[in-house]
User: Which sequence fits this backbone?
């Protein structure tokens, strides 16, 4: 396998090469992001997302969830900070020249914070806010979600729905054993590599801290399936969960540990299959 990035720490070797963020973003869009399609579909079906929906997507990444909403007739705005490469792919998906004027007008992408996605003068407020980046994997992700919600809620109508998503219980997520690799070579001084198992009340706690009123929930099976170990390693690295491990050690070591952790999930035909359950919480803005 050709690594997507190399991080070496040899004496006198000079600065380590930077992660190829474009390749990592492409791996996310082409390999990993589709694993969450059942979650997006379940939420959109339950909420009857359609032509009357004005959706604000927090942490929109490369835009697959937004694209699915647009295909249902929704107008969407996606916001993500510090993910320029993923947003570039989202623009390719949502604003290609071959689309009609209506399709292009239905999508807006913002490289910044939620408050930077304020509707333009004369445009109606959002009536649905979705945080499809699942929490419950990294220390501080709950606090980060609460911060985003505090900035996003003033942009939506009173009574609007908010969707929060998270990892299911570790015993229902085969990928949990693989994600533990991210915690092994943690770098406490930089606060990286701080993987943690999901807690059963993560979403409820985020809603409580944000002043949201819970209005329903659900669980969705989202198996992670890959053509081979190489694809599985690339897909897992594209999540960003292992960046702290890469900083603390090197690419070769992380690839080795990831491959070992994935091996029990490899089937006889070479494919890799990991059943997982994700949760979503529907809440209302008072």
Assistant:
């Amino acid at each position: 396998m050709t690594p997507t990035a190399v991080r070496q720490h040899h004496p006198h070797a000079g600065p380590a090469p930077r992660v190829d963020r474009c390749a990592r973003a492409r791996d996310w869009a082409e390999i990993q992001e589709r694993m969450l399609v059942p979650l997006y579909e379940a939420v959109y079906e339950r909420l009857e997302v359609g032509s009357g929906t004005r959706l604000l997507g927090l942490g929109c990444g490369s835009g697959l969830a937004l694209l699915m909403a647009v295909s249902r007739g929704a107008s969407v705005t996606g916001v993500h900070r510090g993910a320029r490469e993923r947003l570039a792919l989202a623009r390719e998906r949502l604003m290609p020249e071959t689309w009609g004027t209506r399709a292009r007008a239905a999508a807006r992408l913002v490289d910044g914070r939620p408050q930077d996605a304020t509707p333009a003068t004369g445009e109606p407020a959002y009536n649905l806010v979705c945080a499809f980046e699942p929490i419950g994997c990294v220390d501080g992700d709950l606090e980060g979600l609460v911060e985003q919600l505090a900035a996003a809620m003033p942009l939506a109508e009173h009574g609007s729905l908010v969707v929060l998503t998270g990892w299911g219980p570790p015993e229902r997520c085969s990928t949990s054993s693989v994600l533990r690799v991210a915690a092994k070579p943690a770098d406490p001084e930089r606060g990286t590599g701080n993987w943690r198992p999901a807690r059963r009340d993560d979403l409820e706690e985020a809603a409580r801290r944000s002043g949201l009123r819970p209005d329903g929930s659900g669980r969705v099976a989202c198996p992670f399936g890959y053509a081979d170990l190489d694809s599985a390693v690339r897909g897992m690295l594209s999540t960003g969960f292992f960046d702290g491990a890469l900083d603390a050690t090197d690419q070769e070591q992380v690839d080795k540990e990831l491959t070992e952790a994935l091996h029990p999930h490899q089937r006889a035909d070479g494919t890799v299959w990991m059943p997982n359950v994700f949760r979503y919480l529907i809440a209302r803005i008072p």
